[in-house]
Amino acid sequence: MKLPRLAYNWLSTAGAIIAVSTALLILFSLLLSIFGHVDNPYLGIFIYMVLPPILFIGLILIPLGMWRRWLQIKRGERMEMEVKWPYIDLNKRTHRNAFFIFIAGSLVFLMIGAVVSYQAYHFTESVRFCGTTCHAVMNPEHVAYQNSPHARVACTDCHVGSGAGWYTKSKLSGLYQVYAVLADVYPRPIPTPVRNLRPAQETCEQCHWPQQFFGAQQRQFNHYKYNDSSSHWPINMLIKTGGGDPKTGQVAGIHWHMNIGFRVEYIARDEKRQDIPWVRVNDRRTGRITVYQDENNPLTEEELRAATPRVMDCMDCHNRPSHIYNSPDYSIDLAILTGQIDRDIPDIKRVAVENMAREYGTHDSAITEIANSMIDYYRVNRREAYEKMRVQIDEAAVATQKAFSNNIFPEMKVRWSAYPNNIGHFTSVGCMRCHMGNHKNEDGVAITHDCDACHIILSQGQSDSILVSTTARGFEFRHPEDIGDAWKEMGCFECHSGVQP
Ligand code: HEC
Ligand code: HEC
Ligand code: HEC
Ligand code: HEC
Ligand code: HEC
Ligand code: HEC
User: What's the CA-to-centroid distance between 257 and ligand 4, angstroms?
Assistant: First the structure.
């Protein structure tokens, strides 16, 4: 089969070889990943990100080579041609062949292109791609995510949302991230909050929306004390989640902040939004605007002028819906509650928390040291328990290692204290950023610090002395250890930092 003279040049030939072989390679890899169920993110990167540009370069080389040849001929054999531009004459067999090859080739490439770009879209939006491609970097978020209530929600449902605009935006910022990983210049830990996260209305509210909130939620918080018998101290509470839609008559409770009729704004002093000296409430129904200032630490005029208030949304309380790094105190309580750690081992809560919280250089060294140090402690100091409960002590060490692996990532410097959780006020300041009782408006009225505003205590204390609330207000909080009135004057988080207070 003969082709036009112009096609016979090394550049076009090389282009054709590159294009055809990459096309075949793409086709083969696609079939492999679809029908062979090969589940490897690197194969995806290869098919959707490396090969298509090569294919494209190959295709471009073909006309480029022909153009170069045309110029050469024009210059060298000057008068041989009467025409100024290359032309297609379907009456010539060579031209006809080239034309049909071009049409057929384009169709094939278009088809491959459509499949590849469709697959590429899904691939780059997949949990596998986000969570495991840059394994070391995203490992903490990916591991915590798998242990969270959102383990089946795709990363991109919260981080990107729907629509082409945010898709492109996220892929563009992704380009810088790829560079940061390759050049090893990314920050450890990854800073939080995420700047330019898509507003919650367009992500969270696709699945949960304020009109649908109502009622209260009963929860039991299980604590084990730092004493020899690790005694159980459960606190059973009704949390007044509340609702946000005036139409259903539910505008009270915690989700009041998300009330459709209000707008709450605040200014934070620090990057992590933990220090909030200024809050403004705009009641849209009456147009009334109230400003609350932290009387102990008010914003200066300059700070106020320089700041842009942030409108409060879901993420200001639910900042860890998916990447929850639990403190050692909480993780070990959970392990005892679920029977992974035997509470009969003396002093086990304290020993396990201490070993989980210690700073280690790497994940692997942590795993070895946790087991060695826990077992050594019992062998040396608790001879009797060691002889009697060797199996249980080994199991407790394994459970502590697991708690460590799920929540602390030395390589990325990720631990509970690096990522404060804003939902409560036990280990980090959370609600008390505004609700400590010292944010006051002009009339001296403070944002509430009343314990019963957000929850009522139904029962508290050791299982043998549980008190059951018979009053609508619930019990007054009783601190398990005698610390006087300190719990009224200070925040829990000031003493309970995630380890033994
Ligand atoms: C339920 C929603 C949700 C899902 C699903 C989700 N994230 Fe997040 N992610 C968040 C929120 C909220 C933040 C914190 C934002 C803030 O504080 O501004 C965050 C923060 C992050 C951060 C910044 C570091 C940090 O921990 O604050 C990274 C990295 C991250 N997510 C990666 C992922 C990856 C990878 C996946 C999928 C494996 C994923 N996310 C799934 C909601 C989600
Ligand atoms: C694609 C849907 C989807 C999106 C988007 C989503 N969630 Fe969820 N969320 C769920 C589902 C499903 C559950 C229920 C999980 C369960 O019951 O265990 C849930 C549970 C929750 C819970 C209760 C968790 C618990 O401990 O019981 C909270 C709080 C929550 N989501 C907040 C958020 C926030 C904040 C965002 C935005 C950052 C968000 N969700 C985005 C689907 C979603
Ligand atoms: C002022 C802080 C705050 C804001 C703002 C907030 N929440 Fe909540 N939300 C809570 C608290 C506290 C709970 C009780 C559950 C808990 O203690 O973990 C809760 C519970 C939930 C639950 C669990 C289901 C239920 O109703 O019991 C979902 C889902 C949820 N929030 C979604 C959202 C979404 C979506 C937004 C944004 C529209 C939002 N929240 C805004 C504090 C807040
Ligand atoms: C950015 C500041 C800020 C944060 C953070 C914050 N709140 Fe509030 N909250 C307010 C303001 C302002 C009011 C309204 C005070 C008023 O006008 O009476 C309020 C009111 C409330 C109310 C009373 C609603 C009603 O029925 O009138 C509850 C309950 C509440 N907050 C719970 C919480 C919980 C729980 C958290 C933490 C998960 C939290 N808040 C975090 C600013 C905040
Ligand atoms: C602004 C609302 C608000 C106020 C005021 C408030 N709390 Fe809470 N508290 C919460 C929320 C929300 C949680 C649930 C946190 C979670 O889901 O992890 C909580 C959790 C708790 C817990 C269980 C903590 C745990 O992890 O075991 C105790 C105990 C508690 N509060 C006691 C108090 C006491 C005592 C006061 C009064 C000095 C108080 N709270 C004031 C919102 C509030
Ligand atoms: C002045 C510091 C201080 C404050 C404030 C404080 N605690 Fe404690 N808390 C302690 C000490 C000390 C212990 C005993 C620890 C030990 O046994 O070694 C303790 C023990 C506890 C325990 C028993 C389980 C455990 O983790 O040891 C619970 C539950 C508890 N506190 C809840 C709270 C709550 C909720 C608040 C806030 C309303 C609070 N505490 C405020 C110092 C404090």
Answer: 6
138 CA to middle of ligand 1, Å?
10
Label residue 54 left, alpha or beta by phi (over 0 means left) and psi (-120 to 50 means alpha): alpha
12 CA → ligand 3 middle, Å? 62
Residue 469: per-residue pLDDT? 63
Distance CA 474, CA 237 (A): 9
Distance CA 483, CA 69 (A): 90
Say how far apart CA 149 and CA 151 lie, in whole Å. 6
Burial-class residue 285 by CB neighbours within 10 Å (0-12, 13-18, 19+): exposed
HSE-CB for 83 with a 13 A CA cutoff: 6
Mean pLDDT split into 10-residue runs, the chain, 501 residues: 83 93 89 76 79 90 91 70 73 89 88 84 83 81 93 89 79 80 85 82 84 80 95 92 66 76 90 94 89 93 92 92 95 97 96 97 96 96 95 97 96 94 95 96 94 90 64 82 93 95 92
What pLDDT is recorded for position 27? 87
Q: Which atom of ligand 6 is nearest to the CA of 489?
A: 5
Q: Within a 10 A sphere around the Cβ of 167, how many other Cβ atoms?
A: 16
In angstroms and rounded to an integer, the radius of gyration of the C-alpha atoms of the chain is 32
| Contact partners, residue 441, CB within 8 Å, separation at least 6 | 290, 291, 292, 293
Q: Compute CA distances 248 → 88, 201, 211, 252, 281, whole Å.
A: 72, 20, 8, 11, 22
Residue 475 exposed, middle or buried by CB count within 10 Å (0-12, 13-18, 19+): buried
Q: Ligand 1: list residues with CB < 6 Å.
A: 127, 130-131, 138, 141-142, 145, 150, 153, 155, 157-159, 190, 192-194, 197, 315, 319, 321-323, 419
Ligand 2: residue whose CA is nearest its atom 42: 207
Count of other CB atoms within 10 angstroms of residue 117: 11
